[in-house]
Amino acid sequence: MRAEQQPGPGPVTSTRAAPANKAEALADWTDGRLGIYALSKSNLRKIFPDHWSFMLGEICLYTFVIIILTGVWLTLFFVPSMGEVTYEGSYIPLKGIRMSEAYASTLNISFEIRGGLLIRQIHHWSAIVFVAAMFAHMFRVFFTGAFRKPREINWLFGAGLLILGMFDGFMGYSLPDDLLSGTGVRFMEGAVLAVPIVGTYIEMFMFGGQFPGSIIVPRLFTVHILLIPGIMLGLLVAHLILVFYHKHTQFAGPGRTNENVVGMPLMPVYMAKAGGFFFLVFGVVSAMAAIATVNPIWAYGPYRPDQVSTDAQPDWYMGFSEGLIRIMPGWEIGLWGHTLVMGVFVPLMIFPLVLVAIWAYPFLEGWITGDRREHHIADRPRNAPVRTAFGAAWITLYLILLAAGGNDLLATHFHLSINAITIAARIGFFIGPVIVFVITKRWCLGLQRRDREKVLHGRETGVIKRLQHGEFVEVHAPLPQDRLYTLTSHEQPQPMVLPPEVDENGVARKVSVWTRARAKLSRGFYGEGAQIAKPAAEEHQEISSGHGHH
Question: pTM for the full model?
Fold first, then answer.
């Protein structure tokens, strides 16, 4: 038998025109090996909703880029050493003063290197704006419920970025080894020493001996420029990937559902706007750095353990930790010959609990409500009164602690008693958030009632009409359909209901404590007094048809 050779495939013909130039030819070559055309087609035309609040996340991203760029430049000139030198630079008031190499190199960056002070200021202001933008961005996510399924993991990434940014900022302004930053490091050392049993061992490990030692600045430098930024970069990439994968949340409106996104394509519209916004953020931060000086280390002088400045305050985002220490009474407990400093240890324990509460909130709300659905439509804060009130109470607590952390400055600037300020902060710590919670919740319910009135009776026109029997009424104009949809499209879940105490056979049911607690919390979220029923279609139709409508 003779094997018959099958004819091979003929030459592949293509209808695509020849490449117009070498760049297009290179793109065709790359596509043949990586499939970039199909990848680009599916991703570069991805739709992003258009709302001003979404720019808060962009500010976070752009200031992080500015921090990295300016930070790399500063590392070329900063000397992370605590070895002592005699300053012989151009700043006359400090000439001949003994100081660390870290402080001397920071002075040289500020006064000797062209543009150095501006870069330092841009770096520091970018860090401040970065943390502020992350706070604002997370508040937007929190108040609109954008942390719900499937975005719980992304909330964890965002909270991790916020916490790491706060600690990295603390390490950054501790590097110059000036009197202010050294006081902050001493504050950290005191907090570490307050930890029972292991506090002294941790302190010896951190400082390589007795405070201040000679290695804390080099260690902070390594963590500040390598470890934490590396982790943050990884979290940022993961955060953006999940935003891209889950699609962006959008506010309610006509044509917007959980299954679609209404907005602009990534290319070219969104990328053009994002590029312009980056330079706008860079320009604003640069203007802030050029106009307002932050952290003038030459005014404080080098750090000395036997000195402390009255103006010893951390950056605002770490101020609440300072406030916790200052409002806590100086209690001490003696145990087995050892002293437990409760005045420092208790605030040290509250601080991480606050951070854990931020991390865990999406899972706590999901457990309370029992909601397992995906949510891509953002809530209006007024339609979630309990959540909004809780967020407002947290902000109030933060501001009270921030003021308490600067009680000495408030006392000197406003000629008040520092003891009176501290006592007021202690009282406000307990009752301030409660008062704000109640007010905010009632405010949200009032806004819901207003929306209900608008839907049923229309908007006020300012036109007064006299009826035949002499009554004066204001003419209301019906709302357009898109506005009606926006005001009535939100969901109103019902609270969890416990099963009957006995089943159909008369046998008592066993209900766990956790289930009872969940039902009680669920009534607090969605029960009577927690939401105003939105008008039904029948109510609107009856009123708009002329019955009782002016």
Answer: 0.87
